[in-house]
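SEQUENCE, STRUCTURE TOKENS:
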Amino acid sequence: MTAIPDPYSPDDDAVYFLPLGGAGEIGMNLSLYGHAGKWLMVDLGISFGDDTMPGIDVVLPDPAFAVERRDDLVGLVLTHAHEDHIGAVQYLWPQLRCPVYATPFTASVLRAKLIERGLAGQVDIREIAPSGRFSAGPFDLELLTVTHSVPEPSSLAIRTPLGTILHTGDWKLDPAPVVGATTDEEAFRRLGDEGVHALVCDSTNAMVPGHSGSESEVRDSLVELFGRYRNRIAISCFATNVARLKSIAEAAAANDRHVALVGRSLWRINEAARSNGYLDGVEPFVSERDAGFLPKDKVVLVATGSQGEPRSALARIAADDHPEVVLEKGDVVIFSSREIPGNERAIGRVQNLLVRAGVDIVTADDEMVHVSGHPARDELVRMYQWVRPRLAVPVHGEERHLRAHAQLAADCQVAQAIVPSNGQMIRLAPGPAEVVSTVRSGRLVIDGKRIVPLDAGAMRSRHRMMYNGAAVATLVLDPRGGLVTDPQVAVMGLLDHPEQDESLTAATTAVRQAVETMPDATRRDDEAVKQAVRIAVRRSFNASQGKKPLTEVHLIRIGG
């Protein structure tokens, strides 16, 4: 039997770009590059659930397109160790089974995640030195050193016979980054001189004028800020921001305080950073338990939860639900991060709980306690001046960020800019870039121990239940369809006493009427009865409550 050729197999004389996550959104990055029958994946990250996803903490890009072609997937390159770039590897790699390329620090963080997932030693991780050059299938690859809020971030130059594609990953220009090297301007200029066909570039701050700022400014500000307080200081930041951890440690030491880490992810990153030499000279951190024995004016607590995550250390502290850490009136919490769009309400909840307890709050609106890890407009302009691409492809941003970035590229005299959407296959070369096809893309979620589509039946039902409640109707019928006893209706998340008895009585009556008015033959059909009862229950509660609950019907037939 002749095999059916893959209609999406990339041509030998073309280069394709296919984002399955991270285009039109911040987070969940997954990019594919296609050439000569092979695919290269760049990053595989997560996003986080919100109020519209009950019971869901982690959201993943759907890798189905790549999974179906995994025999032609030559590798996964990780640009850096942030969750939105590597967080899905531990969940999705078993479906991909490809080599993973990463710098030593990123590999250390990934290995710790794989151990937790029971995948220790199974993943083929190939460590590449920062600024290293290597090959994967038909792709000639080179890492270019950049600065970001995590050690060893890299841009990726993808060389093909049809031109070079520069995938920036997350980056910024920081003359004094505290941890790690500065962005390798010379390497980018050299690449620009060689010729760059397309620049696939970070758009997070494309609407922000000026410069993103330097980590050394944050450190100096924290030194002064810590000196103002006489009680406990707690500070929340992204766990992977090793430069911020070092800045906090130096500011604490300058004020004769010890630093305690509160949250498992902080300890995991601490171990990876120290094993790769990024916290040399920093005193060992104190455990959260030992921190309770230190005087109030001698401790700085670093806690996870800057985005208001409900299970994070800071959220539990704010709710007075942490087993080791308590904050009291006169203590201060510093939010040393930016709000990721969509997290404002969650962050507000945590901050309000802290304020209610008499804890002072300091944010980036009040003091210099955070700088972004992404390039503002002046930095983007410099990148375009160095690289001089023929094509701009903005990614890593919402639609408004991508559009603003595309306009900036045009202002920088880039010949063409194309704004991608997840699932759009774009031919980058040869000729002008264009969308040539659209493939399936979507979202998966971690639901307990399962990975399921976000739009799966169970998730849709849970969503409906969250907004409309649920009802269960139970009825017992004889073989001819007659009611043996009164039907029963139970509800969850729909009624409060005292209206409950009246509404339930109305619903029960509606069920009885629905059954008794059915034709005799139809009453012998279980599915027809269930459907009629389901409709009756929903109509009854819609009339009494203005809600159409998710309704299940339990039907029992007895007798022969």
